[in-house]
Structures are given as C-alpha cells and as structure tokens.
Fold these 3 entries.
Entry 1:
Amino acid sequence: MEQAIALIKRYYQAFNDGDMATFISLLSDDVIHDINQGGRECGKEAFARFMEKMNYHYKEQLVDMVIMANAGGSRAAAEFVVLGEYLNSDEGLPEARGQKYRLPAGAFFDIRDGKIARVTNYYNLQDWIAQVSQ
C-alpha cells in the first residue's frame, strides 16, 4: 500500500513540477487512459501525446491531494483540486482568454510491477465550462 501511495505522489509531483519525462516514465508501456467523459487510449505514447495537447491548452496545478490505496497496492485513488488557467482554445470548448478555474477532480489507478497501468480521470466538465464561460 505504501509503495502505491508513493508512486501516485511521485506521479502528481512530476505533473505539478512540469516534469513530463518523469511523469510519463511512471506509466507502464501499455497504460490504459480513460479520459474524463471521453474515450479510452492505450499506450505510453498516446498518453504522452494527450499530455502535450493538455499542456498547450491548460496550465494546471493540483492541490489539496488525498491519495488512497488498497492493502495489496494494486489499486489507488486520488482526490484533489485543480487550479488552472485556460491558455489556448480547445476544439469544441469555449474560447480561451486566460480564464482561471478551480475544479474538484479525482483519479483511479491500477498498478502493476511498480508502474501505473491504468489512469481513469474524473471532473465535472459542465462545472469547468461554466467557470470558463463567465
């Protein structure tokens, strides 16, 4: 359990530090990424491309982090608050004008051989749209 929690802490610390090399290195090669209210992508390369796109459109820091894991360390969950800035317009979403947002979010993980094998993210998209549409 402690190793799983430490892994997720490293993952989010790398995210907050903008260290995408470390962030991606913590994923299994065949990682499954369930995108919030979207599709499923497989593989580390697809995840890296997704993050390139996200980092172009959004600048985010995750705060108020709570991380939990099952006793065997094969599954974990995190709850946090996203403090963000909408930098560049994303297709199908409102126009970006540097809007700031604060959004509760969570993620669920499968862990295999010391790597993250699945990431399922969740946040309320309608809340985000309302915040950036003001």
Entry 2:
Amino acid sequence: MTQTTSTTPAAATTLTPDQVLAGVEQLRRDFGAVKEQIGRAVVGQDEIVEGVLTALFVGGHVLLEGVPGIGKTLLVRTLARAVRLTFSRIQFTPDLMPADVTGTTVVHEVETESGRRERRFVFQRGPIFGQILLADEINRATPKTQSALLEAMQERNVTVGGVTHPLPEPFLVLATQNPIEQEGTYPLPEAQLDRFFFKLLVRAPSREQLHEIIGRTTGASESDVQPVLDSGRVIEHGRLLRRVPVAHHAQDYAVRLVLGTHPGEAFATPMVSKYVRLGASPRAAQAIILAAKCRAILDGRFAVSTDDLRAAAMPALRHRIIMNFESHAEGMTPDAVIENLVGTLPLEAP
C-alpha cells in the first residue's frame, strides 16, 4: 500500500500506561508551546498553524495556497526557528534546474595521506537537505524540476549519480503557490499533489488582524521567537501518535469518505458523480486517519472520533480529487464537493 508519511517505525519497546500519559502530556505542551512562539510573529491563521504543526508531527508535507503578502513565508521561517530545525529555502523559477534542488557531483581536489593531490568526485548537497524546506512558488518551476522533489517527499532520499543519499529527519516540505497569477506557471502534476499531506488555503487577514499586523511591523518592537522543540522530540511525538487506536467503525468512515470521492462508487454523492473526474487515492485515507489521531490527542482523547475525521477531510482531500470540465464551466470547487460529501455521508455503514 502506498504511504504518504514518514516510514519511521514505532518504537519497538512496550510503553507503560504512565509512560503513554507522560508522552501525551508532553506532546500537548510542545504543540502549544510551538504554536505560541509562532503566534509571536504570525497574526491569526490559527487553522493554518495547526495544520502545519499536525503535518510536522505525523511526518507529512503541506501545500500552502494564497495570494502574495499574507504571511506564508513568514510562517515557515518562524516554524523553523521555533522547533530548532535546519531551514532551507528554494525560490522556484522557470530556469531552476533539478541539480539546483538536489545537489550535484563536482570535481574536488583533495590531498591524500601520501601528500599527493588527487581529483575526486564529491557530492555537493543542495538545499533539499534541510529539515524544513520552503519551496516558494513551486508552480513556477518546470515539471522536470518539480519532479526532483518526488523521491525526496515520498522516500526521504535523494539519488544523484546512482548514489542514494538519505535526508535528515524530520523532513518537511512546505510549498507555496499563488492561485491567482497563472502566467509563466506550471500546474503541479497529480502525482506530486498526492504526496502533500494537506493543502491549506491561507486567507487574507481580517480588519482586526490587519491592525495588529501594522502595529507589529511598523513599530520599534521585534518578535522574539525562541526554540522550544528539537528534532528528537518531534520524532518521538510522531511515533506516539501512531499508537493512538482507531475503532473499526471510525476507520471505515474514513474509507467511505475516500471512496465517496470516486464518481460511480456506492458512497459517491450526486454532486461527486456530476463534477468529479477522478477521486482521491489511498494516501488520502492515511492522511485523514493520522490527522484525526493528532486532533484526538490534542483534545485529550485516546481514541479517534468521526468528528476528528470530518475535520481532517477538507485539507486532506481538496488537492487529491480531479474535477471535470463541467465543474470548471459551472464554477464548482473541490471544497464544495467535499463539503457536500462530508455533510451527507452516513456515520454508520449501511
């Protein structure tokens, strides 16, 4: 079965109930602490921040879509500062080459133990080897360059010159794209979109939030973001989240949600059958389950509910369904289709 998230296995040792409780409390404290630090620099956007942190803890990647100037890059930079992870940024442009992303093999002159100088091929790492990678305006790069991220996002490896190089853990790609300006852009292929855990829509700030932004950015004070979390604890929290149980009826609801995005299936709504050309992949079900586990733990529960699954459906599905021509002609959006599906799908299987 395909995987959309980190393949780091759960710890082999059996945890005692006290250890589980302590781990859960630590996770909740760390999540809140990182969110608080991000809030020192980013105004509002609570839903976006929670979605990004959820993806970080479960090992997924996030596609941030929004017009320029609303804080997407600031959010990613602030997150890297708050979790003490290495940060890399790639500004995608049409002339960017795959080697500019992954790195390349160069000839390097070295001195041997005998004192002789020899030329050897040395791999020079690219910016993709950061733990948090900001892929800014990813849809401006050509498909050839976009594909350089495919192996990294799925396998957490980069292969150059026949040699495979592992990426650091945790590894999180946060890609941004502008939904308005389409000139000189290359839409992401479905195979790459499917590798994003969530697609989050970053909205413009409200009136009150805009006042707060102006006050913070035009005054003398500067945001003081402190690191409150390291890579080791992020990985531990990810392992703990995978231990959260999911009852069969809850898992079946996630399965029916994904199957309901396929036109012609038994669980598809009339709106799905009319406007959707191709439904979501199994990675969507995996993303819904993992995100629901995180939401349950943060809410102080040790089991996933259908409300958790419903909350995760929109960001996990909106980029994984392919709309048909009729939907474009009538202005029907993936969000509207998913909202209809979530609102009508029975909680219990028929």
Entry 3:
Amino acid sequence: MSRGDVPDRAHIVGTGLLGTSVGLALQRAGCAVTLEDTSPTAGRLAADMGAGVLADPHPDTELVVVAAPPDVAADIIVAQLRALPEATVTDVASVKGIILDRVRSQTVGDELDRYIGSHPMAGREKSGAVAARVDLFEARPWVVCSDEHTPQHRLAQVVAAAEAVGATVLHLEPEFHDSSVARVSHAPQVIASLMAAQLIEMPVDGIALAGQGLRDVIRIAASDPGLWTQILAGNASAVRDVLIGVRDDLDRVVEALSLEPGGYGVLASTIAAGNEGHQRIPGKHGQAPTVYGTVTVVVGDEPGGLARLFSDVHDLDINIEDVRIDHATGHRLGSTDLMVLPDRVQDLVVGLGRRGWRLPEHPDAEGQDTSDRPVGGSASG
C-alpha cells in the first residue's frame, strides 16, 4: 500500500455499525472524515464517538464510502458521484451485483468509472453507531469488485483505504462475491434464525438444557430483521439456490430418520460431509486449517478467574490458539476449552494441574489439588 493513495479526506454516508466503524478507523489512519446520515441523531452519535465531523463534504474529498442498506445504496452512490465529480465512490453493502446493475443503469459518461463496489467481511450481531469499533476490520477480508476497465488510481484509493483500516483486500467479481456470501453468510443467517425460532414454544425447563452447541448455531439469530430482509432480497437468487440444496439434503435426513434400510448410511454420510466442509474453513490469519488439542478447565463464576487462568497459561509459555466458554446451568461455574497446538496439550495439563485447576477430562493430572485454592472466575473476569 502506498501512503500516498490513502485519502486525506473521506466522506461517509450512513452512520450505522459499518459506517461509524469505517470513520473511526480512517480517522485513526490520519484521514479527515465528514459524516452524513438521514437521521440527525444517528449522525451526531457517530460524531460524538469520534468517527468524524457531521458536515457537508469538502469539495476536495477524494473518497466517498456509502454505508447504506442495499435497497437504497445505488441511489445514494449515484447522488454522490454527481455531488462530488472528482471523488471515487465505494460502498460496503453485502451484495454487489444488483447494486452495480442499478448504478450502471443510472450513470452517464465516465461516472461509472468512479464507482468501485466493495464489501468488508466484518460485522456484529449488534447494529448502530453505538456498536461500532475502531478495530472492526482488523485482519478481516475486504472484497473489492473491479474489472479491466477500472481506472487504476481509483482502485488504488479504495484498496489503500481498506488496508488503512486494517483489512486484507480480496479482488472478486460481483457475481462470484454474491454466490460466495450466499453460502458463508446469508444462508447461514436464515438457518440460524430458523433453528432459534424452534425455541419459541419450547418449555423453559427444556431450554435450560441448551449447551454451547446450540449457542454456536444460533449466535447470529439476534441480527436486525429489517436489515437482513434487505440483504436477502438483494441476493435472493443466490441464497435461494443454496437453501434449495440444504432443503434437498434435509429431506434425505428426514427420510433416513424413519430408520429404514440405508437410513444409517445417510445419517453417517451427512455428518461426515459436514466434517469435510468444516475442515475447509481457513485457520487463524487465513492460514491452512489446523487441528488443535483441547484442554477443558472448570472456572468459577467470580471476578478475576479467567485472568488468573490466562496468566497461568502465559507463565507456562503456551499460546492459546482459541478459546470457548460454556456456562453450567444452575451453578456458578462453567467450563473453558483452551485450544492449543497438539504437542503442548500434555504440558498444559500438567502445568495447570500443578497450579490447582480442575481438569475434568484429566482428573489424574500431576499435582492437581484444589483444596486450598478457589476455582477461577467468570467469563468477564
């Protein structure tokens, strides 16, 4: 990235989660940011959070970032192309093909040359400026959609801005982007929502049995219905194709559960196919997937517990590759799964056992003794 390509001035239209986060990150990178939103309250909130100044764009603004919902993004993009005839305009909507088609149908002359669609693969279940984070895009993919006709200096501006906020740029065609996010984002949202909806009529005593598996599956079910209706409508064809495939596979599983001859094979092959797909998800930092060893530690629900646990692991000079926390129903404790490289599992088990931590899967860990030490802390400790 050339620092000369990073815009000195940027204008952000839309101050929700993404727009405000872009503003925070660009300001940190040294860019002067102006903000615009149809809601004065939302705009003032983003400005108060430090994302920029709520004002009309400077005439010399080099980059406009449209952070508006998919159903209105194209109209705003065209308006910005005409309001700032020297600026490059990008957007951060999660669908690209339909927006490009709409912009193309409304632009004249060389206006289209100044529009480059993009999409940061980052977000949260929460929405609005209050949920924004300056590090939201750190180490996350940022898709940029361009072709051989895209002016290189325009492309360089968008790429530089994405890299300035900490993202890793991927160059994809709009159609490939939309078919890909249908599988990795949009269809999973529908499936998570459908699964969570099964809990509506479920007795409370039954829901109390929920473990980490259900929580993992339905985590994104807390997303904004209005925004997701627009996203799904904007990528309807690609999402429909994915869900038809899921429906066909689900029909086979439902039939197999009649336990007629062949049913066991279908059930086993379904789980095995899931294993194969899961293994294709990139590992840390986009590297090849790595199989980690897991050490489960019982942690009490009290302040400082997790801090103590992580401090002890640090003292053992062992890197935690990932972590998962599962709270026990009806008890003030939970289990913390520490994922480490396989060749460090035994060192971690022995080391934590000697420090008094309870390891339910390794009850005979050398030196384990909890008689004179409290057990850990809460997930927020």
